[in-house]
Task: structure prediction
Amino acid sequence: MSGSPADDSSEERAQPHWCFRLSSVVSPGAAADASDAIGAVEFDPTGRLLATAGIARKIRLYSLSALLPPADQSEPRAAVSESSAACRLCICAPAKLSSLRWRPGSDGRVIGSGDYDGVVTEYDVERNAVVLERDEHGGRRVWSVDYSARGELGASGSDDGTVQLWDPRCGGSGRAAAVMRAGGPVCGVEFDPEGGPWVAAGSADQRAYVFDARAAAAGPVATLGGHERAVTYARFTQGGRRLVTSGTDGTHRLWDWEQGRQVRAYRGHCNARSFVGMSVWRGAGLIGSGSESEEVFVYDLRWEDPIWVQGFWRPRQETGSGRNGFVGAVSWMQLPADGEPGALAAGASDGTLQVFVTRKISNSH
Result:
């Protein structure tokens, strides 16, 4: 099953382009209800596991070898299964989960989560055991967690308007190493994935911020205003000098954050009320996006319009299904763009998980 690329007659856009195909569908099963909504999807950096989480208070782990096609299968057929059969491990959490992130340096063993009760928890997925708990946000919901490139620092963004930095090696006993403040609830947070000192945050005050972790008390080094509603995600592009933000105004925006300048706005997906998911494949320069239209969108950083749009397909289409659904989480597998085929995972508000494979191809003339 393939989606259709957006129409564009320019030769520049036609060469090269990307081919996307549906690889796997994991259904929540016949008894699914609103509690199965997926709010976070994360690929294990070792390439072995895919994790999902949401308001069902469960972290579900899937083996990527079962979700992705064999390397020698050029025309993958979509594998369809139910979550109960496909799930390799299910970790039960004490509260609804808003975010996930694998901890670098743990060899795909430790995953961090943020929850609606304001708690950050790390789990050892091999032992199915809690290895860290932090409750430093005063019970205010944690919307986002992340780790620095080498895993020596963690960050959590919360409804309390702060980004807290902490050392995961200290367990839950250590106080925050630094606290950075935004002008409203912090919806998304990310370290510069290439090891720079920068920490980006998106806020409900309609702004995005960039902080220097070495001088957190000095306030943001950049404040980016342009969104008309809450900024839900902030993601660095390759090189760390540009930032992609998402807002409930229905746009993603690319910034040269050092200059405080908006470079481009991306429109096409629907987003007026929910966290619809946004992820940047840095090596390829692509944005993956969810939508309240129950579709997955992909944008090339160079162009404002989407290059690929795909509606969610399900094994059983029920009458009236999807009328109020949305795609609430997306994640790219971070691979070199010219290497192995890439992968994009997307989770929907009804608990359906889909994994797409993509390959860069060139037209012959």
The first strand starts at residue 4 and ends at 5. Residues 198 and 212 are 5 Å apart (CA to CA). Residues 4-11, 318-322 have pLDDT under 50 and may be disordered. DSSP finds three helices and 30 strands in the chain.
